[in-house]
Amino acid sequence: MPKKNTAIDLNSTDIFDIQKTMRAMRRLKPDPVPYQLIEQILEAGVSAPNGGNAQTWRFLVVTDPEIKAAVQPYYKRAYDEVQKPRHDEQKPKTPGKALDQHIRNEAAIEYLTNHFHEAPVWIVACAKGANSVSSLSGASVYPAVQNMLLAARALGLGATFTARHIAFRSEVDTLLGLPEDVSSFAILPIGYPIGKFGPTRRAPLSEVVRINKWDNPWPG
Ligand SMILES: Cc1cc2nc3c(=O)[nH]c(=O)nc-3n(C[C@H](O)[C@H](O)[C@H](O)COP(=O)(O)O)c2cc1C
């Protein structure tokens, strides 16, 4: 039986505990990550479901500081020009828990934005032939991304699903040296976390699940 949302052991490698504590870990130490761990993460990635088992995913592991430093300004530009204004609009207007949470979250997002290139390793999840089947390509890459995030968490590594660079995808893909028929869909900055893992915050099932009829919420 899957566990209910009770106390979670942060050192557990039980799949249900891992899922519930796999939040975005945006503050990372610059210490290198052993090659074997990266390989374990990649093996988890390529175990994921994908359309027709065509395995059109491609992964670029980036440890070169120059390449990461060249890409980071685009990630930051996407924050400054697109994400930050949107988040500012969504900022709760009155003091309280929600505002405090928003401020904490935004600080973490801004931290990763400024330190993106300092993560010791990036895994750039890409799809081959993405230009011809654009809307479905991500669907065949993102399950691998999720598997890799779970694997990183199980290995005690922090990581974040990032896709904001897509606002400047062609510039970023050029800097990454991707071939013409390969496009990036996510960049996972990975490293040992500075902070502690903790539970994700999500709405209860009763808010997001219906059973049989749309006006019939999940009773849990
Ligand atoms: C498609 C997608 C794109 C995302 N892009 C970014 C990103 O560019 N930068 C970032 O810091 N987080 C990014 N995230 C992470 C989400 O912000 C995060 O999962 C969400 O706020 C919930 O927080 P939690 O995972 O820590 O619980 C992305 C998540 C998804 C699914």
Please, could you describe this protein's structure?
By secondary structure, the protein is an alpha+beta fold. The protein has 8 helices and 6 strands; from the N terminus they run H-H-E-H-H-E-H-H-E-H-E-H-E-E. The strands form 2 sheets. It has a 4-stranded antiparallel β-sheet with strand order 1-2-4-3, sandwiched between helices. It has a two-stranded antiparallel ribbon with strand order 5-6. It is globular, with a radius of gyration of 18 Å. It starts with 14 loop residues before the first helix and ends with a strand. Flavin mononucleotide binds next to helix 4.
Ligands bound here? Answer: flavin mononucleotide
* Structural class label: alpha+beta
Number of domains: 1
Helix content range? 40-55%
How do the helices and strands line up, and which of them pair or pack?
Layout: H1 15-20, H2 35-45, E1 57-62, H3 65-90, H4 97-115, E2 121-128, H5 134-137, H6 142-154, E3 158-159, H7 169-175, E4 182-191, H8 205-208, E5 210-211, E6 213-217
Antiparallel strand pairs: 1-2, 2-4, 3-4, 5-6
The structure holds flavin mononucleotide (FMN).
